[in-house]
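Project standup — Tuesday

K.O.: blocked on the structure for the chain from last sprint. Re-posting the sequence here as requested.
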Amino acid sequence: MKKLHQLYNVKKDIDIRDIKTNSKLVTPGDLFVCIMGVTVDRHDFIEEAIKRGAKAIVVNRDVNYDIPTIKVSNPNDELNKLLIKFYDDPFKDLILIGITGTDGKTTLATIIQLLIGKDKCMYIGTNGVSYNDVTLDTLNTTPAIEEIYKYAYIARKAKLKYIVIEASSEAFFHNRLKDLLFDVSILTNITRDHLNVHKTIKNYLKCKSLLFKQTKNSGFSILNKKDKYFHYLKKICPGKVYTYGSKHTHIKLINYQNTNKGTLIKFQLNKRTYLINSPLIGCFNVDNLLASILLCDILKTDINRVINNISNIYVTGRLENLDFGQKYTVILDYAHTPNALLQVLKHFKKQKRNKIITLTGSAGGRDKEKRSIMGKIVLKYSDWVIFTMDDPRYEDPESIIKQMIGKIKKKNYEIIVDRGRAIKKSLTIAKKDDIVLILGKGRDNYMMIKDFKIPYCDYDIIKDYFDDKK
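H.V.: unblocked you, prediction finished:
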């Protein structure tokens, strides 16, 4: 909390409890900043903010309200300066690690936090905010900039040293990360996604590249050398660049082998060879783990602590193997892009002893062109597919499913729009040694219908199914 006169040259001695740019989130005592969004002007919501208890506003034009009004030339540029004052520049004592990529952000960020330790590192991303034994919910994969500053302030108070954050392309597009400087930037991969927002892959790449442009000159970047855009991104990185993803990189993968409990990985780092047991599965998670180990080494984290922490890695809703005593495998995963689906299905195709049953859908209000690509992939690599709904928003889920199926002549599928019923059907038809892949939502706790988040969770449906069979 700060006094208004500590932030601006005004005589009013008012307590400011928090800073908000979303009028719907304003609570009594807040300072409301009227930034310009991509399609929204926050000046239009001043009255709503005041009704909710805003005690002062920051604007760029003459307005007439009965609360302190601070006029600036550009509220968007003003916001970061204000946040630095209000939260006492929280990032000056923290190392900020940003992760971007089409797939794998949540997994990589979670691995990094667990290897460094929750007592030293805060995670911010799709699965909320976590540190020590604390877990908080967030509205977006990458929260608004004022929320990020608040979490940084909390991290400093908790005497943490690091923050690892998922930096999504939409966050850069909507200026949620504007003017934030990163100590470390990491790339997982770049394939097509979010073209409903970015329109072209070129625009999508441009937003992704902002993470690396916003990396400090004194910082460094870690890039996946296998990625198609590796050379493009390497040229724009201001600091030193480290690499992973192939044999000719700073951390060298020698080989890996799938096991019943995960993956046995052999790699070389600093001319020393290591053999580790990872609880994660899939070649993509080999890359995620090696990128994390490389980061820890650069940060001079004790390598023995890192190796010992590998056995503790668990990423909720990401290739999560659910064991309820059934005689078949149930995997819960967030895969919702063509590349993610392909990688997951190719991995399990190699492992299968019987049939692969895949449940999937595609979100409404998102990139429509990827739907038919996703349909082809799941029908090619699965023995049976159940197409269902996945956050339809304002679209008709049956129409989305028809777009996924397209003109494919294969008939190894059925349509069950109700996702709960679809999941129960996939589990009912599964036989011994089958693999049931429930894809698209991970452990999301809602279904997006129009603009409403309806309480819903794939995991709860699965658990209830097996509980009822006891």
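K.O.: great, moving the ticket to review. Residues 20 and 345 are 43 Å apart (CA to CA). The two ends are 52 Å apart (CA to CA).
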